[in-house]
Design brief:
By secondary structure, the protein is mainly alpha-helical. The longest helix is centred in the middle third of the chain and has 15 residues. The chain has one domain. The relative contact order is 0.19. Helix 1 packs parallel to helix 3 and helix 2 runs antiparallel to helix 3. The chain has a two-stranded antiparallel ribbon. It has three helices and two strands; from the N terminus they run E-E-H-H-H.
Length: about 70
């Protein structure tokens, strides 16, 4: 299971964490080198492609994650 840290210790990675990852994918560069929307779209397309081969979802809602990636 994927884990993340919070103030209370280690907690499992949840579907909402994966969706937050997708929402922020490609947005963390500084202003001078910020990725263009084309690059962000490519990252999201790559996520969707890679998800087809992903074997371990550790309880994540696969369809919700893919729907969010497609929507973004």
């Amino acid at each position: 299971m994927l884990t993340r840290l919070n103030d209370g210790g280690v907690v499992g990675w949840r579907t909402k964490d994966e969706i937050a990852f997708l929402v922020n994918l490609g947005t963390h560069a500084d202003l001078a080198s910020r990725r263009t929307s084309t690059d962000r779209k490519k990252l999201l397309r790559n996520y969707i492609q890679a998800a087809q081969n992903r074997q371990i979802w550790d309880g994540l809602d696969r369809e919700a994650c893919l729907d969010m990636a497609a929507t973004l």
